[in-house]
Amino acid sequence: MSVAGSTGPVMDRDEVDRTLARLGAEHEAIETSLLALQDHAGRRLLEGAELTGVTEERWAATEASIALLWAYFDAYTDALRTARGIRSRRRWSSREDLAELTELLRGESVTVAGSTTATVAAPSLTGPGAGKLSERFTLASLVDRMNELYASSLDMVVAADAVWSALPARIDLLNAELQRTRRLAHSVGVRPGEHPAGDDLERITGTLTALRAQVVSDPLAYWVPTPGSSAPGGGRPDTATYDREARALEDVRREIDAVLTVRQDAEARLVKLRDLLSRADRTLAEARSARGEVLAKIAATEVPKVSGPPTVLQEQLATAAEYRRRAQWHRLSPLLEALEERAEDELLRARESLTAVTAPLAVRAELRGRLDAYKAKVARLGLAEDPELVERYEKARRMLWSAPCDLRVAEQAVLRYQQAAAELLGPRVPGQGEGMRHE
Fold first, then answer.
1. What does the pLDDT look like over 337-360, one tens digit per residue?
2. Which residue among 50, 82, 110, 337 is least crowded, i.e. fewest CB within 10 A of its CB?
3. Among residues 206, 228, 261, which one ends one of the domains?
4. What number is the average pLDDT over the span 408-431?
5. Comparing C-alpha atoms, which of 230, 235, 67 is closest to residue 152?
6. Could you give the angle at the alpha carbon of 102 between the alpha carbons of 65 and 17, nearest 5°?
């Protein structure tokens, strides 16, 4: 909407004609704007809606403002019609006509019944004339008043329409996805009171139902104005609650997907678990057997004890198989995850136990290998029959191949044999003795 000009002295014919032309253009623009507001989808929705809260209060004031707008427009139309009538009396207007036209076009010649309720919708309309039973306007000030009322009314209508256009449809789409997720959850045993995801679905359902009802009845409660914006409808719908529930539903959907995955590969995972625990049991049995062998064959050494297989894992495995048989996938899922981690740990523990138990046998095997390696090297150099070497070799060999074997004493015997061989080989092969001591 445009703004009329200011007052001044008696206008001449040209000024009158130009002013009437401008006011006619303004009248057409105002009428177009008012008709657009009248036909606005948001206004029609507001008229037919059962409103509550902030929206109910604002719409009551806006309805009064729109009614007052039409009253102002009618008064403006009448004044413009009167002015055109005076100008059309004669081709060349008399001074009396021009004085009358000047008063009509520039003076406070328009009287309109006031409305206290209407001014609530436009906080700027709180001047001296606000709330009076009637008010007098110049055509210019009347246009200013219509502009302000129109802006505040349009702002309210556009804001409500924006919320209604954005949120209910999105909530409906999310509700449809929620219903699909609920059916899927029910099919895998995820129900309220039995699984946290089932409780989440119930809470999301209640929140979305309440949110939609609130958005429909009080859209302005979910409107965030843009700070500093003077344009009608400057702002955005408040989607914080919707966004939070959408994220919560996505989390539940991932949980349901995990349960579905369990249903699809439960048997394979149970077979793998049985294999892991079986391997752990066999490894522990081997460790127990090896411990007996070490105690019989190795003397003066500490051999760690070997614990038995944990029965709790076998019990949990049986429980998991029962969950699968009863299709209790929501219970099977976390149990399988815990079992898989503990079964891997159990197999690792069994292997570490076997390694710790058989360490003395590994040391004995390493000493035997070292002794035979030196004997073979001595034989290649033609010293196999040396009496001292033969004596030291036989002594070390008896210690390593007899039971129980004292590893500390046997290691010293092997070292003495190495030293004797190095001393004999030193003069014959320069540098050979030092090299052998590093083998």
1. 889 888 888 888 888 888 888 888
2. 50
3. 261
4. 76
5. 230
6. 90
Domains of the chain: total:
4
Residues 224 and 212 both lie in one domain:
yes
Question: Residue 253: which domain range?
Answer: 162-261
pLDDT tens across 17-35, in order? 898 999 999 999 999 999 9
pTM for this structure? Answer: 0.58
